[in-house]
Amino acid sequence: MLDLDRLRALNAIAEYGSVSAAAEVLGITTSAVSQQIAKLERETSSRLLERSGRGVRLTDAALLLVGHAERILSLVAEAEADLEAQRGSVVGKIKVAAFATAARGIMPHVLRDIAAVHPQLTAELHECDPKVALPQVLRGDFDLAVVQDWQNSPLPFPEGLEKLHLLDDPAEVAVPSSHPLAGRSSLAFTDLAEDTWVGAPPGDICHAWLCHTLRNGGVEPRIAHFSLEYPTQLALVAAGIGVAVLPRLGRGLLEPGVVTIPVRPRLVRHIYVVWRAEAGRRPAVQAMVTALRGAVDTVGEGAGQVLVPSHQPDGAK
To answer: Does the keyword Transcription apply (predicted)?
Structure first.
């Protein structure tokens, strides 16, 4: 009989391209993954991996087995969800992915509430970009993910996932308090056509979004300073060496010498929680969704922000 853990190891290698990447995703050592594959080769009397340069490639036998493994592991996950739903107990372990500002702005509230209400449930948080998190939720590497998409740059959602809209997070322009337009009640990007920008580094999803957004607003981006962290971007703005566009969630307290001004026309990002369709029956998943919905009612108020929670009675859509 084929061992499920060994099938998971092979499937992870197929998905992530290497033994080391599979080990990181599975939370075990590379040696343990190699041992699982060696045992699976003995079980199947087939060679499954071959050296390819500094990495490995799957043999034809391995590719055949992976096709079956995906279906088998999906059925096992569905059976586990059904059993957990039947028991009705919020216990065990649940893995949640969240993009950086949600991890900072929402998840501390969620994890605190989950620990208080469901002490037998262990929640594990992973900071993860939405485009990386979505396929991992679909594969079962994460149970849920908190993701974002901007109204001018929607995020594609794969089939097999369900989602719930949690809140809308508006963007604002951060300018030095000495800026000539600092007293405005709102700004269009064309008002800042001659300004230097601070933004995320090239290659990051936020950098691509900023360039796309500015160009759509009629401004050719002149990004002179790069940082992944919003506090660093705000410190650079406070120093008077650029302006930045930032969402409110997870931004934290403003640096002295920084003013934020709403963007005109209004620019928001939509924040969702997503999960595999079959996992929606799990009490642990339902408990986490409930905690997330509760958290968005308090996170804006607690951070001195005006966010817009969205509670949809019909659940996922």
So the answer is: yes
